[in-house]
UniProtKB/TrEMBL annotation:
Keywords from the UniProt entry: Coiled coil
Annotated organism of origin: Hortaea werneckii (Black yeast)
Protein name: HAUS augmin-like complex subunit 3 N-terminal domain-containing protein
Polar residues bias: start-end ranges: 122-133
Superkingdom in the source lineage: Eukaryota
Region annotation Disordered: where it falls in the sequence: 118-142
Annotated coiled-coil segments of the chain: 252-279
Length: 521
């Protein structure tokens, strides 16, 4: 029993394309806790009665109830309807409905054609009424167009007023902005002007320091040589004094030889004093001082280069900002001029339109006050003479003549009459389709031309309005660059404030003291 219900469940899952296999559901039939519930669920919900749709299930219930009532009453009931019979009945109903709808559409088209023919061949009163309806429709459309044009003109005027007010505000605030920017530039230039002497002094003092060091080293070498020579002279004097004492003791010849040897040695030493003193001074003072000077000079040159780069970058930034402000001012003035030009043009167009409307009202009033119809001039209207027919006419021929349909020789033959009416109907339908196509094409062409002209005018106006706006041209500088320029300006101002607080004289004095201490050491 469980295998049957398992196969029934698997077949139902496969019919509905549910991705569950035997391994996924077989455990429920094998488990003692779920086997009974699963079998009951399959019997309840996968039976043929439950696999019907809602409508089929209701029909089955009603059919079963009628069968049960018939069985209880003892009456004989017919066999149930099969699916094929139901499909045939539904198909026949659908075909009948389609035929009825087709016939209704045919009758509606015939009715519309007959009404069109009747309206075409109606009396002059109907024509006048149709013409008056068209005139009313055109008047309504004209009024609607005038209203839309006025609304568009009012919107443009309000936009122009707001744009003109904004431009005027921007132009009015431009002098104050320029004054503040120029004041900031003046402060920055003052700070740069204080830096220029410092840069030039550092470059000029380096050459003077080298010359001064060379001069001092030469003097030191000279003094050293003088000191050495003085010491040699002192030693020579002391030696000669001792030799004079020895001469007094009777050693004159030996003393004279020693003096001569000492003089020769002293002359040789005296010749080497200058080179030795120069070498000593160069090794101890001159070369280290020059190295330190070159190091300080390179540091000063690097610092001077940095200050020069800073000054050059600051001047370039100030120049670029001044050019940008000039372009912005030019743009604002041109934008204001363009807005004023467009406003004057719109005012001129509005005046012309008002003049045309006033002229039309005057012409309409004059036409009403001066009648031109024959009745208003005193002419008597014509009266139609009613014809008296001697013999009654056939109603069918009268209707055919009114509908402009050629009559058949024998009006009693309904087949020929219906065939003739069908041919006439086809001809009228083809002519109506051609007229409809021509009318739609003409209206679409006229509407497209009107809309294209209106779009061109609106695009020209919008182009003139937005020509000098931020959206009328391509910007080469984005918001990030402008923000970076603002930060650079702020840092430049802070650096200028710091430079103004620096005491240049005190720094120079301290540097000179440091150099003096270094030279003394």
């Amino acid at each position: 029993m469980a295998a049957k219900e398992l196969h029934q469940l698997l077949r139902a899952l496969d019919d509905r394309n549910i991705s569950l296999g035997r391994d996924d559901v077989e455990w429920a039939f094998e488990s003692a806790g779920t086997k009974g519930d699963v079998q009951k669920w399959v019997q309840d919900y996968l039976s043929p009665d439950c696999l019907l749709s809602k409508e089929e299930f209701k029909f089955l219930e009603s059919f079963n109830s009628r069968v049960a009532e018939g069985s209880s009453d003892g009456t004989v009931t017919g066999r149930p309807l099969t699916d094929l019979e139901l499909e045939n009945a539904i198909t026949s109903l659908e075909s009948s409905t389609a035929a009825i709808e087709k016939q209704c559409r045919l009758l509606e088209s015939q009715k519309a054609a007959l009404q069109e023919l009747k309206a075409r061949h109606s009396t002059s009163a109907a024509t006048d009424e149709a013409q008056s309806q068209r005139q009313k429709k055109s008047a309504r459309e004209k009024a609607q167009l005038e209203f839309e044009v006025n609304e568009l003109a009012d919107g443009l005027q309000s936009d122009l007023k707001s744009a003109a007010k904004q431009a005027e505000t921007s132009v009015g605030s431009l002098p104050n902005v320029m004054e503040r920017v120029l004041e900031k530039d003046d402060r920055v230039l003052d700070g740069l002007q204080k830096l220029i002497p410092r840069i030039t002094q550092s470059s000029a003092s380096s050459g003077n320091n080298e010359a001064e060091v060379d001069e001092l080293c030469r003097k030191l070498s000279y003094l050293t040589m003088q000191e050495i020579r003085g010491r040699i002279d002192n030693a020579y004097r002391s030696a000669t004094a001792s030799t004079h004492g020895s001469q007094a003791n009777g050693h004159a010849a030996d003393t004279e030889n020693k003096i001569l040897e000492l003089q020769a040695e002293l002359e040789e030493l005296t010749g080497e004093i200058e080179g030795l003193a120069t070498m000593a001074v160069d090794g101890k003072y001159h070369h280290p001082i020059l190295r330190e000077l070159k190091t300080s000079q390179s540091d000063a040159e690097a610092e001077s280069s940095r200050w020069n780069d800073y000054v050059l970058g600051t001047l370039q930034y100030l120049t670029t900002r001044a050019q940008t402000l000039d372009e912005h001012a030019t743009h604002l003035h041109s934008h204001q001029d363009a807005i004023n030009t467009v406003a004057r043009t719109l005012e001129g167009v509005a005046k012309v339109e008002e003049t045309v409307r006033e002229r039309q009202r005057i012409q309409k009033r004059d036409s009403i006050s001066s009648p031109s119809t024959p009745i208003a001039r005193g002419l008597k209207p014509l009266r139609l003479v009613q014809a008296n027919f001697a013999e009654p006419q056939d109603a069918i021929s009268h209707v055919l003549r009114q509908l402009d349909v050629r009559s058949a020789p024998d009006l009693s033959d309904t087949e020929k009459l219906s065939r003739m009416l069908g041919e006439t109907l086809k001809e009228r339908e083809s002519s109506l389709r051609e007229l409809e196509g021509d009318t739609e094409l003409g209206l679409a062409t006229q509407l497209a031309e009107t809309l294209a002209k209106a779009d061109a005018n609106v695009s020209d106006l919008l182009g003139a309005v937005h020509m000098h706006s931020p959206f009328g041209s391509v910007k080469l500088v984005d918001g990030n660059v402008e923000e970076g320029l603002g930060r650079l300006e702020g840092r430049t101002q802070e650096l200028g404030e710091e430079m103004r607080r620096i005491d240049v004289d005190q720094v120079a004095t301290q540097a000179r003291k440091t150099q003096a201490r270094f030279l003394q050491a």
